[in-house]
Amino acid sequence: MSDEHKLRRQKGIVAGVCGGMAEFTGINVFWFRLPFLILMVPGGLPGLLPYLALWVIIPRKRR
User: pLDDT tens, 4-15?
Assistant: First the structure.
């Protein structure tokens, strides 16, 4: 698999997790940010924990 088709974090609003997933799948970044925002409403942890886990798991995009 070429380097351009791997899941990588993008430069984004916070850590680039949603932007990286959007680029990898070809889906608009809005559809990745929306679930995280919805999960942040009941107190933050339901949205923050998966986001932080993905931030650690998904490597940064090389320049």
Answer: 678 888 876 788
